[in-house]
Amino acid sequence: xxxxxxxxxxxxxxxxxxxxxxxxxxxxGAPIPELLVSYAAGTGxxxxxxxxxxxxxxxxxxxxxxxxxxxxxxxxxxxxxFYGTDACFHNHAxxxxxxxxxxxxxxxxxxxxxxxxxxxxxxxxxxxxPLGRFxxxxxxxxxxxxxxxxxxxxxxxxxxxxxxxxxxxLAGVPTPVSSEYFATSADAHLVxxxxxxxxxxxDTPDRKEKTNEAAFRRLARVVCADLDEIGISGAMxxxxxxxxxxxxxxxxxxxxxxxxxxxxxxxxxxxxxPLFCAELGGIDLTRELGPAxxxxxxxxxxxxxxxxxx
Length: 310
Hints:
Layout: E1 2-6, E2 10-15, E3 18-23, H1 32-40, E4 47-51, H2 62-76, E5 81-83, E6 89-90, H3 101-109, E7 116-121, E8 126-130, H4 134-137, H5 142-148, E9 151-152, E10 167-170, E11 173-176, H6 185-191, H7 212-221, H8 227-261, E12 265-269, H9 273-280, E13 283-284, H10 286-289, H11 296-307
Parallel strand pairs: 1-4, 4-5, 7-12, 12-13
Antiparallel strand pairs: 1-2, 2-3, 5-6, 7-8, 8-9, 10-11
Helix pairs in contact: 1-2, 3-11, 6-7, 6-8, 7-8
């Protein structure tokens, strides 16, 4: 059996051979059928699918995005079934399929960690899910999750640095930042040592190298400077102050939702699990699930399909 999570930027697949993550931006004509056919070839196995990519701005609305994803997956795997925000599997494109990937994770984990809060911090977003409130999670849209604090739109790789900070203290001088797309959270986390170059899987803003030196150049541009103007120390200040704001937003929201929901522990998954687990004193799901923790919804929907004997 195959578990698939179709995001706006990444296609994640879990099968018997392991976890496979492809950078696959839907707004650039992502070749979903071509990527999936190799996993389905000759097996005849069904696939269980979740998605969040329907929100990509290449689609006029969510239902158009859902239909595109369902059709694309079905071209490679005709027996695919799709999990929705009603916690049911569907055979066709229906509105309930929009952004149901987080609910599949909650559905899988809720009996294992009934009193926990799940933080799944990936490349783009942070899902903050009180597992003990599963019945009240059904049917929630991403807009409603934003309002409740269950979705924080910042992640380890793809967040524009300028969306979280407006000024930087640069050598003691308050310095407004440019709102241009000059540097991402991946640049900050790379130079801070939070990720390795191999984990920098998305495109860079300038389509150039994924090295510390190149990341420092991009971070310097956030304050409209060349690297030789402010030096590595100045670019590092941009990274450090971005990280402080991102950390405070994600951890502060997780603690607030945990307190409101009565959660007794915090479990953490996603590419940012080791970093945020240390900040929150939580349980790193990587220790239990291994690489599958970086593709939790794909792993979870596969397990749910198997458990329901679909």
